Amino acid sequence: MAETFMRQWAMLRRIPRSPRKIDTGTLISMLESEGYQVDKRTIQRDLKTLSALFPLHCDERSKPFGWTWIGKDVFDIPGMDPQTALAFYMSAQHMRRMLPSSTLHYLNPYISQAHNVLDQLSNQSEIRQWTNKLKVLPRGLKLLQADTQQDVIDVVYEALLGDKRFHGCYTKRDGEAKEYQINPLGLVVRDNITYLIASVKDYGNPLQFVMHRFTSAELLEEPRTVPEGFNFEAYIADGNLGYSVNDEYIHLKLRFTKYDAQHLLETPLSENQQWYEDGDNNVIIEADVLDNLELRWWIQGFGNKVEVLQPIELREEFVNLAKGLAKTYLSAT
């Protein structure tokens, strides 16, 4: 009796949620790999018995017939506890743009159950209150999320998930629309914009596409081609998403007011950052950083609270920027 129960329990764990399904032959192979010796007739009898107790369905539209879980509810023993429910609830707030729709389809029942578990808790519950005690905020000016067509998102994510190409129509910044056969290599989510790193046709140079500029996308059966030597992590680490100026590191030397430099003493610019006081109210910061546009935008954000000392070429850029700003604002008055 105990062995039968354990076998049936193992079967329930192996049956996937709709629209996926599993045939009896595959189920037998899985059970045998776990040490259960069963024949096809026994499995069929077990499945018929279990389908009367649980939301199981046999899809007989095409051979081999397959069994699947149906319905929106999650069958889970032990049931979802409040701590697990909180984890699903909080994760759902941040992962929807990072997962393919097919994956979210399987997670949605758990997310729905998490909401139900939390809703049943008292408003004074520590777990329930946690959702009102944590917020994730972006730095800088908050912009509205770019509007990307859901059917485009589905195709791009499925292509990346299945290592396939897709055909897409893309609108450039100047308004020109072009069609490409794209090899997706990776996705980068930055604030409210998602970037697709991809190559075109059989060319090896990785490019960056802004997802919301795709107006259409069609999944292709042709497998994607990955440029020789391409590594997604290395591509990002090399500063390609930082709008590189010359793809080189520079030795940066800045003079800050002591107050504005404080956060850099806690969160340094680089591993080799050094600092020392310069007078009563100033601090000198030195570090090796990648020379890119984001560095310039970051420095500009401090206004007159920072002075670029080195490299001299970057200092000259800010001298010319200051002259340009002065001309713009003084001429306006």
Shape summary: elongated
**Strand element count:** 11
Q: Beta fraction of the residues?
A: 25-35%
Q: What is the CA-atom radius of gyration, in angstroms? A: 28 Å
**CATH topology value of the largest domain:** Alpha-Beta Plaits
Q: Tally the helices.
A: 11
Low-pLDDT stretches are none
List keywords for this structure.
alpha+beta; 11 helices; 26% strand; five-stranded antiparallel β-sheet; Arc Repressor Mutant, subunit A; four-stranded antiparallel β-sheet; 4 domains; elongated; SH3 type barrels; single chain; 11 strands; 333 residues
Task: Characterise the protein shown here.
The chain has 333 residues and is α+β, with helices and mostly antiparallel strands. It folds into 4 domains: 2-69, Arc Repressor Mutant, subunit A; 82-130, no CATH class; 150-237, SH3 type barrels (Roll); 244-332, Alpha-Beta Plaits. It has 11 helices and 11 strands. Strands 6-5-4-3-7 form a 5-stranded antiparallel beta sheet, with helices on one face. α4 (82-95) packs across α5. The longest helix is centred in the last third of the chain and has 21 residues, at 312-332. It starts with a helix and ends with a helix. The mean pLDDT is 82.
